[in-house]
Design brief:
The longest helix is centred in the C-terminal third of the chain and has 30 residues. It contains four helices and no strands. By secondary structure, the chain is mainly α. Helix 2 runs antiparallel to helix 3 and helix 2 runs parallel beside helix 4. It has one domain. The protein is elongated.
Length: about 100
């Protein structure tokens, strides 16, 4: 009867080793995800959403060139969330402008 393989025990010597093992090496993908997170602040989403889309596309290219870098999920999340942020911020600003300067004001 074969024993099941032992789990690797994490290295607790370095306090960041557990976190660092989870973060992809694909820097554009991680930046896209972070831009998308900060872009949830109203008004910032218009600019940071565009940055998240661009970085997400670049992060996807990096992943396709080198799958060992990981980060495809971060890149796709940056593209999708960035697109939604740009859309909702643009509509929101248009509605604010319509309310301030539209007919009846």
């Amino acid at each position: 009867m074969a024993k099941p393989p032992r789990r690797r025990t994490p290295n607790f010597d370095d306090k960041y080793s557990l976190i660092a093992s989870r973060v992809p090496k694909n820097r554009p993908a991680v930046l896209a995800y972070r831009c998308a997170q900060v872009g949830l602040i109203p008004g910032l989403g218009l600019l940071l959403g565009l940055a998240a889309i661009g970085l997400g596309v670049r992060g996807r290219q990096v992943f396709l060139a080198d799958p060992e870098s990981r980060g495809l999920g971060h890149a796709v999340a940056g593209i999708v969330l960035g697109g939604l942020e740009v859309l909702t911020n643009a509509v929101g600003l248009a509605l604010i402008a319509y309310g301030l300067f539209g007919p009846g004001s």
